[in-house]
Amino acid sequence: MPHYSFVLNGKPVTVEAPSDMPLLWVLRDLLGVTGPKYGCGVGVCRACTSHLDGAEIQPCVVPVEDCASRRVTTIEGLADGEKLHPVQKAWLDCDVAQCGFCQPGQIMAAVALLKKKPHPTDADIDRIENVCRCGTYPRVREAIKKASAEG
Amino acid sequence: MDGSSPTPGSGPGDGVRRQELPRRRILVYALAASTLTVATPVGIGVAAEGGQRGEDPESALRKPSDVVVIGDDDEMLVLEVTAANRVVVRLPRAEVGQGITTAVAMMIAEELDARLADVDIPLAGARAKGNQFTGGSDSVRSLYGPARELAAVARAKLVTAAARRWHVPARTLRTKHTMVVAPDGRTATFGSLSAAAAQVHTPAVPSKPKPASQHSVIGRPTPRIDGRDLVTGKAKYAGDLAVAGAKPTVVARPPTVLGKVVSVDDAEARAMPGVLAVVRTAHGVAVVAESFHYAFKARDALKVKWAPGPLAPLSDRAIRSRLRAAVPRLGAPPHGSAQVEGEFEFAFVSHAPMEVLTAVADVRARSAEIWFSSQTPGDARASIASAVGLPQSSVRVHVVRGGGSFGRRLAYDAAIEAALISKAARRPVKLMWSRSDDIRHGRMRPASHHRIRASHAGGRVVAFSHAMASVGESSESLGPRPQGGMTTTAHVDARKVSAGPMPSDSGLYNFGAIDQKGGGIELAIPLGAWRSVDSGTMRTAEEIIVDEVAHSLGKDPVAFRRATLRSKAAKAVLDKVASAGKWGRPMPKGRAQGVALHEEYGSCVACLAEIDVTDPHHPRVVKVVMAADVGTAVNPRGLQAQLMGTAIDGISTILQAGLHIDRGAVREGSFADFHYARQRHSPLRFEAHIMPSRKAPGGAGELGVPAAAGAVANAYARATGTRPRRFPINF
């Protein structure tokens, strides 16, 4: 079986996995990194949203071979040690989460958006596809604006 | 402890001493332990009886919930103060996002004068007896009295222990920040006093909860206690647990609802990499593998011949016509009255919690251990024990944080299935339903049909009739117990709900003679109580008719409601949304406001929605203003979150989210076609106003659904000039 090396949350890792194994299961089942969640397995609900070289991906539809020698960041790698990322901080300030299951994906999607557009409009925020079944959307919007305003 | 022995027949058992507080109905026990541990029984309705509601002049108008809640009164709510100064309350409820752990932590911190950060609320595993039911928007109501009593007793014992240590009068001591403080400034943490406090039988200070006027934690908007875990990915759900040896497991399921395996060729699947076991289940074939990747691949390689399920010939059209035919006839309207009538249809709706059903099961020859999120762990344990052939006492059920529920985790289908697979495969398993399993195989809110008639004469409604029929779950679909139907009390409870008194029995409006009739058809389809249960359809439809009555009388929908609402509290929430939402302000073409109310669980709520239908295929609710009176709002921030969730439920179920049945199968299979709202469907502005109150808490988690759904439907009707009758509208 092939081996793939990549940088996960700042640390080099090597996994033995079939080339078509989705990154989600590499993370969850092989590496024990459970922040990215399974919600649909087909890139639709986006609960697993993480970053590949800083850009948003849905690990449930990205095969591990596409990650070789690249940087993968999950929700676990967003904070700097105990110091939360400004978007995580905004999330806490706005008390966004309810059940929390989609929130790692929501936060990673928001971080990716703010990277592209530091001052997103409502229309930009509307383009976030991540499903939240608890309906936290208004607080997601509020937290993104707060994080944007605070830089 | 007054030196008394336990009262025969009512004490919790050996090692437990009982302390009765004569003035109060709630008993608090001290458990024999080396650190301070106290426990109290949690009874449904205890808080309401012991609280201030009886003194409320409006109490006659505020009825308890119509949702039947099961359980008896000898459940134990247990508080422990550890030597490390942690206050630990093992909670006999499920946390599925509704924030009950935060609300209970606040009650405990309030009475104990502990820092909220020092309070831990782990979820209790299934217990042998008692009320461990999470549902009916009852958790805060049932815990508000007992949790505060419990903490107040613990505080009194800690203060007494400090007084003895310092040889000062107990009444001179104060408590704050998880410490006892002496007049001279000496402090002792609760943790350092816990062992001594455990020996205190008769506290030297009163152990009565504070009056509401002294509350500084209860009523203060407070962020979730688990917020940091939730934003850092540390929070663990069932699928995140690392239970030794528990291997990823998925099940191949039939294309139709409750179809069956005729034959299976699993040779190719078994030979695939990472596959550990393939076992038959009652309605499918399970694959256990080293990873979910291997499990899904092997599942797809199974060659299964399926027999169609019992629903196979049926599609929506036939179900709808059978439902229509099952609606009881309305009686004759009052002589001389004019009629406003409407028939309404609601589709099946998936619960679709973000975390699909997941259960870890380790079933051995003489014992079993199961980890999952459950609103009914006691019933689940009994059913699992029966399914795997073990005595209940040999089955441990661990309740894990749930990724949403909306009623779905009342049933424990996946847990029974996981236990049976573990038993058959002779190894621990981590079973996960796929999203399409979740949407295609239930459970779901039943479809329903409603016929409503308001009779008016002389400018007012003189009679109001509502006849409805909904789909009930036939015993055929429940099948043999091991398949995982809700065969015990949770199921009975869910069924009683639809057969019981109707949600609008409370008589929100002065509408003269109220007449309600229910009918139904039975189908072999897995159903389940969905947030707000029957109110989500019944009361929504009624609020649409209320608007149509107002229209036919030439009255404004808010003014008409205001003139006909019975209770002051309901009028107040209506006034609040009308003023905060600027009811009646000029709107551009294609935009309109809608309003609706609901009253249940001892609480009431109003919702004002503003909709933009410029693109009729993509209506957008742009603003939602809600106001709720739930009595004492323990955590207004959490309550606002619950109302926000119900607003999104209302938008989804009215405008776009439902399930089709095509020849015995659910057509939808993911969030790509089950159109629960996303950010682009959610209001750009949301406000939730909490009415101040010192009454005992009412229920809140489900409260907002009918008001939000009704307001969205009424706004849509006004914006489009149509009379919406079938939901979801874009389906």
Automatic annotation (TrEMBL), chain A:
UniProt entry tagged with the keyword Glycosyltransferase: no
Instruction: Give the highest taxon in the source lineage.
Output: Bacteria
Q: Which GO terms describe its molecular function?
A: 2 iron, 2 sulfur cluster binding; metal ion binding; oxidoreductase activity
Q: Which residues form the 2Fe-2S ferredoxin-type domain?
A: 2-78
Alphabetically list the UniProt keywords: 2Fe-2S, Iron, Iron-sulfur, Metal-binding
Please indicate if the UniProt record lists Transport as a keyword. no
Q: InterPro entries attached here?
A: 2Fe-2S-bd, 2Fe-2S-bd_dom_sf, 2Fe-2S_ferredoxin-like_sf, 2Fe-2S_ferredoxin-type, Beta-grasp_dom_sf, Diverse_Oxidoreductases
Q: Which PROSITE patterns does the UniProt entry name for this protein?
A: 2FE2S_FER_2 (PS51085)
What protein does this entry describe? Isoquinoline 1-oxidoreductase subunit alpha
Q: What is the lineage of its organism?
A: Bacteria, Bacillati, Actinomycetota, Actinomycetes, Kitasatosporales
TrEMBL record, chain B:
- Where are the stretches annotated Disordered? 203-225
**GO molecular function list:** oxidoreductase activity
User: Which keywords are on file for this protein?
Assistant: Membrane, Transmembrane, Transmembrane helix
The segment(s) forming the Aldehyde oxidase/xanthine dehydrogenase a/b hammerhead domain are 232-310
Q: Where are the transmembrane segments?
A: 26-48
The coiled-coil segments of this chain are none
Keyword Protein biosynthesis assigned to the entry: answer is no
Q: Does the keyword Transmembrane apply?
A: yes
PANTHER family tied to this protein: ALDEHYDE DEHYDROGENASE, BLL3820 PROTEIN
Q: What is this protein called?
A: Isoquinoline 1-oxidoreductase subunit beta
Q: What is the lineage of its organism?
A: Bacteria, Bacillati, Actinomycetota, Actinomycetes, Kitasatosporales
